[in-house]
Amino acid sequence: MRGDRDDSTRKAPIATTLPVSPDVDVSGLKRALRGAIAGEVRFDAGSRAMYANDFSIYRSVPIGVVVPRGADDVVAGVRICREFGAPVLARGCGTAPSGQTTNVAVVFDYSKYFNQILELDPSGRRARVQPGVICDQLRDAAERHHLTYGPDPATHEYCTFGGMLGNNSCGTHSIMAGKTSDNVHELDVLLYDGTRMTVGATSDEELARRIAAGGRAGEIYAALRDLRDRCADRVRAEFPDIPRRVSGYNLDELLPENGFHVARALVGSEGTCVNILEATVRLVRSPQHRRTVVLAYPDVFTAADHVPELVRTQPIGLEGFDHQLILNMVAKGRLARERALLPEGRAWLFAEYGHDDPEAATALARQALATVGAGPQLDARVVIDQAEQVSVWKVRESAVGDSRAPGYMDAEGNWEDAAVHPDRLGAYLRDFQRLLDEHGYRCVYYGHFGQGCVHTRMDFDLKSASGLRTFRSFMEKAADLVVAHGGSLAGEYGEGHGRAELLPKMFGPELMDAFRAFKRIWDPDAKMNPNRLIGEVKLDEGLRLGPGYRPPALATHFAYPDDGGSFATAIERCFGMAKCRNLGTLTMCPSFQVTREEMHSTRGRARLLFEMLEGDPITEGWRADAVKESLDLCLSCKGCTGGCPVHVDMPTYKAEFLAHYYGRRRRPLHHYALGLMPWWGRAAARAPQLINALSHSAALAPAGKRMLGLAQERSAPRFARRSFRGWYARRQPGRTDSASPPVVLWVDTFTNLFEPDVGKAALAVLEAAGFSVELSPPGLCCGRPLYDFGMLPVARRALRRVLDTMSGALEAGTPILVLEPSCASVFRDELRKLLPHDEHARRLAGQVVILDELLERAGGGWRPAGLEGRRALIHGHCHQEALMGLHGERQLLAGAGLDVELLASGCCGMAGSFGYLEGDPYRVSMAAGERVLLPAVRAESPETLVVADGFSCRTQIAAGTGRRALHSAQVLQMALRGHEVDIEPEKGLSP
Length: 991
Fold this sequence. Notes:
5-stranded antiparallel β-sheet, 43 helices, alpha/beta, 42% helix, Uridine Diphospho-n-acetylenolpyruvylglucosamine Reductase, domain 2, disordered N terminus, Vanillyl-alcohol Oxidase, Chain A, domain 3
């Protein structure tokens, strides 16, 4: 879907700390790559900008990006890079908090295409995978055979095997299964010089045979043998004997007692030695039933002291975190229900036990709790229920994202995964806290307590010269501290850029020489991810947000009240965690899930906006086409607003960008046709039959769609013969009591002009529930379609008119029922961002309710019965899920007697006007709907009620399945009438 722009005719930017030749012919390199590989070659400014950042505090603009379709593309691409003298860097996702995957090199992104499970052998307990395979992709496949892949980082839902192999990743269950290196059997690797080898464990006989065979492979094996012989004694003596030593190269794997395992020696080499084309990995038994013991402590140090005793109970996972993480979640309003399951304390440990028999699993957990007895814990509980276990573990697994709370605690990584022996963990953390206090830092503690690896993210000041001096002092002293405790600088994430400079503190000059020799054996030209892991790069250079970062002060339409009024600060929320690339959860980000393009992830878009402000390589500011291209496929679904741990708000950023991009510039016609539809639609509704005939004319409609840039496959919604307001004006007033609580029914454009049945049903339900109903004044609109196109001055005027016209109801505190979730979201979200200091805006945001909220809060939980025995399938609107939640609607309909299923379907794909646009938007729209929603609706029987409160959701369902979905108000109206089970939901709904 992406068009590659031919704008890279200059030489690649040269970083002073990187050995990149100024003679790299970038234009020639690009042409040669395009002619040789089947995948994608991207040297445009937008792609280079997007890959300049990763999940770290560092930034390097790459020479270009290659997205290979398979191993042949990698072989050809590396060959051409070698011919042009260009360094190469392999990249996946979700495993690089130390700056491993930013460099002045040609980036090979394996995640989009190079992502197949090639073989899964349950009997041999092995699998063969390509580097772009996601960890959970293999784990889910293996679970069908009661197996799993053991190392499971917190990012297991979206991290790739290439990254896990590059970093020697671990995870919650590494206490059971070991590090990635412990779970590798063989690797198929490609060297910069073109040599391709399959490496693994090597017996003495095999080693001799390979050396005797000669060639480049024989030369490598001979050099590795000689290196082992020279440094074996020092490796045995000086490598820390701890569960989580990830720092340096794995020279210990070359020792005879470890089987001269060349594959495991390469694991954790961070792409500095080889490209991994395939990996054969070990699978382990997955206990079918699990129980979690949750223990609460007065502080994190006491929890750490208790770890050795808990380790002796042989848990399959032993994780922990401290109260600062909970405070961050409270500050962001996240995971309240999950947090409520924790016993009272200021630090917690989770010990997990597993068995194939459920009773045995419970017995293991209770026995472990009995074994530790009246220890230092304040409280403890055994969690048996599967749903509750998922909830409590969600708190722990959210720690990476929730270590950061913008505006409250802007934590950064870089000293994030040091590890010591579990027996020393309590002492180490106390010393570490003293070091934090000395430097004035706050910290979030969380991680793999059972293996002595506690993640720490601090509120570093990297933007000032004095802050940077403090940062360097802290990093150097922290390295000294962990070495003094016999630990490792890295227990999971490797050195990368951030700790390469500190590695000599841990290993000394002789072992550092051995590491350099190991690197030279594989990469004598120093072109594989140069200057990482053992390089000369400085920890305080190449920062993404260093003292030199001075974003422009911008005049914006939105006020960004949660970000100090700054668009730049809002963009800085994204720190690259990449949860938006999770293919397993459908909420965020739907466009990425369809295209698998980084530019269509929330992270990719945020990074492009950041680079737009940075000004190089994106130089056009608000007029940057690379940014617009990325945002064109943003559905503005608000999945990121609610789902991103740091609440990156891409719909707002998109609207802001488009407002400036089109400032003093002619817009496409569909902006006016769709954005201003609430206004011209009122005039059109005076002659609905004529407008419907014209818009559906076989002769005229196709030409009109072409002119407006609309998809030919879509049909325009039909105007109702009589609007809701027209019907209401002729209606006999309902019976109300003077004591009836008042409510204003907001008459949105879609209900009024297209689906008046929804308004009629809502009115019937409200009056049956005892409300006195008044309609919102005519001529008002929330302006929802305007935000999709960045027509923000018009949107502001529309909102100002709403506030002025409805001032009486606002001052009276009357609840305002909004039937359309996207309209409700304007009043609860966009309104406060456009008018943050307006008292009436604050009142409106607080008084707007959706149907389930009104009936629960103001109506005393009123619910009609009458639909017992009937099934309902609910598709929740994205905005409702992000801002209001779907639990209330589910409870409301269940209270009407329905057997309710809340479908985990993500965005329907229509997303307001998005799905009407021709080309990629239409294709993405339909593909998003086909992920779950449309197939699920097709699979239901005709008697099932399909419920969707969003007008665009109902439109998408009708277009994709032929089924008519209902608003929840219509379902409640059916309950009032006592419809029988055999009545089809598509019929007989109007009063």
